[in-house]
Specification:
The protein is an all-alpha fold. Helix content is 62%, strand content 0%. The protein has one domain. The chain is built from four helices and no strands.
Length: 95
């Protein structure tokens, strides 16, 4: 039976990634200190650097949602109504 995978808390990951970012110790020294594989530390550090700007993002700014707006919905309703009228007209001509 294989050993169970370890899971680390977000606080622990942040602590290790920040320590790696400070570069006071090498990745190998940090791996020995925190008992984590050096590749994992490098991955956490890369994630920290990639997503650091999200910490300072203004949460109050209005985000564009993927939901269609009212205007888009009314346009689609109008287009579908025209198509339905056209199909009805064509079906009357075939009868």
């Amino acid at each position: 039976m294989s050993p169970k995978r370890k899971s680390y808390s977000a606080a622990f990951k942040a602590k290790v990634a920040l320590a790696a970012q400070q570069q006071n110790k090498t990745i190998s020294q940090l791996a020995a200190q925190f008992k984590v594989h050096p590749i994992v530390i490098s991955r956490w550090k890369a994630q920290l650097l990639a997503h650091a700007e999200q910490v300072f993002q203004d949460k109050r700014s209005k985000k564009k949602s993927d939901d269609p707006t009212h205007d888009e919905l009314y346009q689609e309703i109008g287009r579908l109504k025209v198509e339905l009228d056209w199909v009805k007209k064509k079906s009357e001509l075939l009868d």
